[in-house]
Automatic annotation (TrEMBL):
The keyword Nucleotide-binding belongs to this UniProt entry's keyword annotation: yes
Protein name, per record: ABC-type multidrug transport system ATPase subunit
InterPro entries according to UniProt: AAA+_ATPase, ABC_transporter-like_ATP-bd, ABC_Transporter_VariousFunc, P-loop_NTPase
SMART domains, A to Z: AAA
Listed Pfam families: ABC_tran (PF00005)
PANTHER family, per database record: ABC TRANSPORTER ATP-BINDING PROTEIN ALBC-RELATED
Naturally occurring in which organism (per UniProt): Streptomyces achromogenes
Keywords: ATP-binding, Nucleotide-binding, Transport
């Protein structure tokens, strides 16, 4: 799957002279990956997701590429002039499905999330939980290449939360990229490839330590220090690293088994834009 979406040196602020929410953000979600966006309340997580979804336009920089994208916003507009099934069928047609295919997809996802009994209910009469099921279903019915979830699990019952986790796994297995925000740090921790933390208007990438609890190298290892123009380290580099941390600004320190050091350096130097290698240090076994 070719996923050509890219944020290039993007900044966003609200109002002509308002403070910058995000600044100098470069990001390119990779196919088949699951990315968590973390950060304190008000740091710009939802703003980043809205830029990825092209709901908002950047104040500076640019967003390129138009993959088939689906988005579950933090606040779903439930008071719409449709029934639940009618709304999903309409969205399916917007995504390019034929009407019969859109109707089948609507029925399928309402059934999967336990909301089939509400197919004919007007949207403005749905409970908050059922409305959230429709919000999630509309994002999944067209099999997007990029799925963006902003607190999508909030309001769902336990069965629907589990069903959404299964649906996320299906999308990444099919080669789609999934980017999500969730208040529960345990959400999909074992499946997350990269954590992007929004802090001080910038974007900082690290390996999800919770997903790799036994990653500390016990044999000879290599520590590489790099810096670059991009906010996020290349995904291939993060997958190779047994530890990765941001040390200052756009400077990072990565550790890999010594046998993987050449592959790591190649991933960093061949990235777009390439990373500058500050130092490479070989170390013996850790106790």
């Amino acid at each position: 799957m070719e996923l050509d979406l890219r944020l290039e040196d993007v900044g966003r602020r609200y109002g002509l002279h308002g403070p910058w929410v995000l600044r100098h953000v470069t990001l390119r979600p990779a196919p088949g990956t699951l990315t968590r966006v973390a950060g304190a309340n008000g740091t710009g997580k939802s703003t980043l997701l809205r830029l990825l979804a092209r709901v908002d336009a950047p104040t500076e920089g640019r967003v390129t590429g138009r993959p088939r994208t689906a988005y579950v916003p933090e606040r779903f507009p439930a008071a719409l002039p449709f029934t639940a099934a009618g709304y999903l069928t309409h969205l399916g047609a917007v995504h390019g499905l034929s009407r019969p295919a859109a109707e089948r997809a609507a029925d399928h996802w309402l059934d999967r999330f336990g909301a089939a009994a509400h197919a004919g209910t007007p949207m403005n009469r749905l409970s908050k939980g059922t409305s959230q099921k429709v919000a999630v279903a509309q994002a999944l019915l067209a099999e997007p290449d990029l799925l963006i979830l902003d607190e999508a699990w909030t309001g769902l019952d336990a069965d629907a939360r589990a069903e959404l986790e299964r649906a996320v796994a299906e999308r990444t297995a099919a080669g789609a990229a999934v980017v999500f925000v969730d208040h529960d740090p345990r959400r999909l921790a074992d499946a997350t490839d990269v954590v992007l933390t929004v802090r001080d208007g910038g974007l900082h990438a690290r390996v999800d330590a919770d997903a790799r609890p036994d990653s500390a190298p016990t044999g000879p290892h290599t520590t590489v220090e790099v810096h670059g123009r991009a906010a996020a380290l290349p995904l291939e580099a993060l997958r190779l690293a047994t530890s990765a941390e941001q040390t200052a600004g756009r400077r990072h320190r990565l550790t890999v088994p010594a046998s993987h050091s050449d592959v790591l350096l190649r991933a960093l130097l061949s990235a777009d834009p390439p990373w500058h290698v500050v130092s490479v240090r070989q170390e013996e076994s850790r106790p």
